[in-house]
Design a protein that fits this description.
The chain is of the alpha/beta class. It has six helices and nine strands.
Length: about 190
Amino acid sequence: MSFFDTEKDVNEYIKMAEGYDGSDLIDELRNFLKDGSSVLEIGMGPGKDLDMLKKFYKVTGTDTSKVFINRYKKINPSADVFFLDAKKLDINKKFDCIYSNKVLQHLTKNECFKSLKKQKSLLNQKGILLHSFWYGDKTENYDGLLFVRYKINELKNIVKEDYDILKTQRYMEFKKNDSFYIILQRK
C-alpha cells in the first residue's frame, strides 16, 4: 500500500502542501515550450499544477493514487487523468513535454534513472522534460514515503546520453537552495 492510498494520508498531504505549487516552474517552462503543446504530468497529486498547466497546454494528468485521481475527476469530469506508474510509464501516447514537481524523488535512484530513460520514448522529437527535486545526497523515509535527494551534476551525468540540458536552477521551497529543477530536451 502506498502512502497516498488512503483518504487520511491524502488529506494530510494536502494540508501540508497548502500554499505550495509549481507556478514558478510553469512560468519557467513557458520559456521553453510554446502554448498549445501537449504535456504529461507525472504525479499530479491534488491537481494544483495540472490546473495551472491547462491554462496554456493540452494536459494529461497521472498519479498512482486512485484517491487523487477520483477526487480530481469528481470536480473535473472531462479531465484527461488516469492511473500511471512513473516507474513503468505504460502509456501508448507521445507528448511535447513531461512535467513533474517533486515526484521522481519518491523512486529509488535506479527506478528514477529507468523512468527518465523511458520518458524519452514518450516524447515527440525535441520534446522537453521539466522535473524538480529536493537538493542533496541523502535518502530518507517518512511514514513509508521515500525521499531521494539529488545533486544536479549527478542527474546531468545520468541524462546526458539521451537529453540536452537546457537549464538547471536551484531555488528555495522551505530553505535557501533546498530544491532544484532541470529542463531537458530529447536528443
